[in-house]
Each structure stands twice: as structure tokens, then as C-alpha cells.
What we know:
Blueprint (H helix, E strand, L loop, with lengths): L14 H23 L8 E7 L3 E7 L5 E8 L6 H19 L6 E8 L2 E3 L4 E5 L4 E4 L1 H9 L3 E5 H12 L8 E6 L3 E7 L2 E2 L26 H5 L1 H11 L7 H11 L8 H9 L3 H25 L3 E5 L1 H6 L1 H14 L9 E4 L6 H10 L1
Helix pairs in contact: 4-12, 6-9, 7-8, 9-11
Amino acid sequence: MKIRRTPTAxxxxxxxxxxxxxxxxxxxxxxxxxxxxxxxxxxxxxxxxVDLGGTNMQIGVVNAEGEIIGRCKRKTKAQDGRDTVIRxxxxxxxxxxxxxxxxxxxxxxxxxxxxxxxxxxxxxxxxAGNLGWENVPLRDILAKELxxxxxxDNDVNVAAWGEAQLGAARGKDNTxxxxxxxxxxxxxxxxxxxxxxxxHTAGEIGHVVLFPGGQPGFMTVEDICSRTGxxxxxxxxxxxxxxSALHRLLLEKSDEGGSGMISSSVIAxxxxxxxxxxxxxxxxxxxFLGVAIANIVTMLSIDCVVLGxxxxxxxxxxxxxxxxxxxxxxxxxAVLRKTEIVVSTLRDDAGVLGAAMLVA
Length: 360
């Protein structure tokens, strides 16, 4: 398995000096890549990237070196309606610019990743269930409000673009990025370009059917491999495992004023404690995800897969290893076993940086 590792102090001489040099080289590499894509981008200009979710919006101000220099995180408040969300988004952009100490005249554009199928050419959010939106011309609305160029795409597409340009898949022309969180989504970069498809829905791996004719709630990749699917399986089986660490973890969480919800962090903690039930469910979900990824790689001959999202970030390399083992057993031909499967290096910033790169 090919896993990229960061050298430890014991592996290098003069670690402090090497670390400084590595940081300079990383900044220089980002600057070179960013400037190659955005030839007309002023050195003192900034772009705002927005990761718009149903619960939260993450906003980052990105400079010419591809670094986030200002931030704002806000509740989306989708229940208050479209106009409220857009107003809060514009206010958040202003706050992020203030945080970056960047005047509005340095703003070169805004990129947005939305949790929806998106008509990229028209800048329309086609249908975002967790926002309650349908056919919203978000790009043009924001361009008018902000007075600058705006680009809009699907949230996992922009995360894939961020990883391809500045993260774990940099240097790779063909990448599949799979984000495992509340649901499961994917973005495709083929021949160095985002592939959206004529229906604007390329990458909907969560809706790939694993068990046709199966029981409702146990048919698709999302049914089985998402955090929602994992939690549903754990809840169903917990009465059969009275000694599971999950019971204690949820009780501790409740005592601390928590909601008692099985979050990604709770799953990760139970897994780390070698909880039999959690290991059984998580490993099975990773196995099926590996099968789904292998099917896509077999079809498209992709050389890099990036895993991200809340479940991946919480479980880390042990989860990626399980996905990889399943992938290797399934992919065809054997030469594709050399496909890299790596964990996101940009993590929560993948969406913000990828959205910014839409404008660059």
C-alpha cells in the first residue's frame, strides 16, 4: 500500500532547518501551481472560497500562494429561507476579508461549493435538499450582491479540485475523491479537468447500487458506507452487544451534556478501544466502499483516490487501509492495484481551497 509519510525528527538531520526548508518549498510549490493556473492573478489579490453546507458555512480568504489568510465559520440557518442564507453568506465573506485584513478592492472573485447537483455553466443550484433549494441561480445573485466574479460547483467536486491542485493528489491528472460523512459523495478529475457530465451529476457514488432488490436502507453505497449507514447498523445491533464500549461512550457524552448521538468521533474512539461491534460494522462498511471504488477505477483506470470527509478524518489511516485491502481484492486488471489510495491532506480546507481554485 502506498501511503505518503512525513519524515520524523529521527529520520533527518538538522530537523528544524529541514522543516523550514520544507515549508518554503511547499509555499513555493503552491505559489507556482496557483500562479500557473491564474496567470492574471495579482500578487496582492485574494480569492474567497466558500464551503456551503446545510448546517455550517466555511469561508476562507486565499492569497496568491494558495494559503488561507482569513476565515469565517457561521451557521447556515437553512430553515430561515434562501434570502437569509445568502445574506449570512455575504456577511461571512465580509468578516473573512476583515479577518484577513484584505480590503474589498483586492477581492478577485468568489468560488462556492454547494451541497447539490450544480449546473456549472449557468451557475444554478439544481436541487439542494438540506438547504431546501431548487433551481436557485446562486452565482448571478451573489455576483450582483458582491460586485465580483463568482463561480459555483458541487461541494465534493470542489474538494476534489482542491486536493488535485494543492493537496494529496497534486501532480495526478486522474483522481477520484470520495468524501464519507453524513452521506457519501465523490468528485472526478479526468485528464486534469473536473468532470461533471452532461447531467451535472458525475461522481454520485453514494447512489451506486450494491445490492439490487435488497432491503430498503441496505442497497446503495450511501446506505452502508456513510456515517448515517454506520450509525443505523450500530443502533440496530447495540442491544445484542451489551458490553460494547459504545454504551459507555454515549453515557459519558450524555453526562457531559452531549446529545447522545453517535458521531464520527464516538465511532473512532470505540474503534480505538477495539470494540467488537464497532470494528465489525466499520470494517464491513470500508470493505463495501473499497468494492465501489474498485468498480470505478476498473472502469476509468484512475491512478489516485483521495478519501476525505468526517468518517475518514476521524478514523484515519486504519480506515484507509481497510478500504485499500478490499479495493485490491476487487479491482481489475491487477496492474491497477498500484493505484494510490490516500487520505485527504487538506481536510476541512479542501472545499474552501477547491472553491477558490474555481476562480483562479
